Input
Amino acid sequence: MANAFKVLTRDVAPASAGTPETIYTVQSGSTIVVLGLTLANVHNAQVTASVTLVSTTAHTGQTTNTTAHLIKDAAIPAGSTLSVLDGKVNLNVGDIVKVDCSVADKVSVILSYMEQT
Output
């Protein structure tokens, strides 16, 4: 199993407020360990932001995963940054990380992760 450290960035997201933008989808043959997720407010006023994990992974003897919030409606002052994670999050094939903001195109996103293939 090969491990590769990677980073994914979005200068601004989402394209439309209230419509979460897909930041990352785990591809077939991969498992992802999210190491960090940072949101920066690039607007001249406070915004609120949410990050969701959309997962339908089913584990033996467990119920199927559903969509869960990593953070919901967190206030980010103008010019400030928010670190979303306190620890690591494991993602399986097909899992999706989405970001939403109260104002379109006003949050910048950095996702750092380790990909196992």
